[in-house]
Amino acid sequence: MKCLIFVVALVTFATVSADRIKRAPLKVSVYYESHCPDSRDFIMAQLHPYFCKVQQYLNLNLVPFGKAYSSDQGFICQHGPKECRGNTIHNCVLKRIQDSKAQVEYVNCAMYDPDQPGHIEKTCVEGSGLNVDQVQKCFTSSEGYEMMLKAEKETKAMTPGPLFVPTIVFDDEYNDDDQNQAFVNFESTLCEKLVSRGHTDVCSNGAIINPQTC
């Protein structure tokens, strides 16, 4: 009888554990660039509007680097020196913001008008409640440089290049179909992923039910 009770308990524990794993937060990593038009469109039209609706189910990871690369002279970025500067500022800011929604709000603000003087390093930083001087010190020092090296390492490890920016990766496993679907329709892709994890009450017919606006 004791053996039978032990087996039943073990099966119950395994079932509960599997359910918890199945319902674990969905990790969403977005590898983007501070001055990339496609990054701007994705963040402002898809990530920002939909993230706050399902943020409790997600583990968001924003990595500003893209197709840049390090060299003996520093960094070379797809859209020139202004983007290297912008990527560094983004990295400095995101490190100092713990709340994912606040991170999305900053990036959405910064992508709105990245070429406007003071926009990404002052206006949007102040809007996030951060100290402008601390961010300034970060992106003009070795701290910002080291953060860019870290972003480069992760970007190259987790994406195929990247071949396209932004690159969207779910649960640290790049997939061409996921990338293409998420870039075209992030909402329906999120719904598909969340429903498959057992969050069946989050979406209906590929659309997020939560009426909250961001």
Structure at a glance:
The protein has about 210 residues and is an alpha+beta fold.
Number of strands: 7
**Largest sheet, order of strands side by side?**
2-1-5
- The averaged pLDDT comes out at 91
- The percentage of residues in β strands lies in 5-15%
Could you explain the architecture of this structure?
The radius of gyration is 20 Å and the shape is globular. The chain starts with a helix and ends in a 6-residue tail after the last strand. Strands 2-1-5 form a three-stranded mixed β-sheet, sandwiched between helices. A two-stranded antiparallel ribbon has the order 3-4. A two-stranded antiparallel sheet has the order 6-7. The protein is α+β, with helices and mostly antiparallel strands. The chain has helices spanning 2-22, 37-54, 81-96, 100-112, 119-127, 132-139, 142-158, 176-184, 186-196, and strands at 26-32, 58-64, 69-71, 74-76, 167-170, 203-204, 207-208. The longest helix is centred in the N-terminal third of the chain and has 21 residues, at 2-22. The chain is built from nine helices and seven strands, in the order αβαβββαααααβααββ.
Provide key terms for this protein.
3-stranded mixed sheet, globular, 7 strands, two-stranded antiparallel ribbon, 214 residues, 57% helix, alpha+beta
Could you give the topology of this structure?
Blueprint: H1 2-22, E1 26-32, H2 37-54, E2 58-64, E3 69-71, E4 74-76, H3 81-96, H4 100-112, H5 119-127, H6 132-139, H7 142-158, E5 167-170, H8 176-184, H9 186-196, E6 203-204, E7 207-208
Parallel strand pairs: 1-2
Antiparallel strand pairs: 1-5, 3-4, 6-7
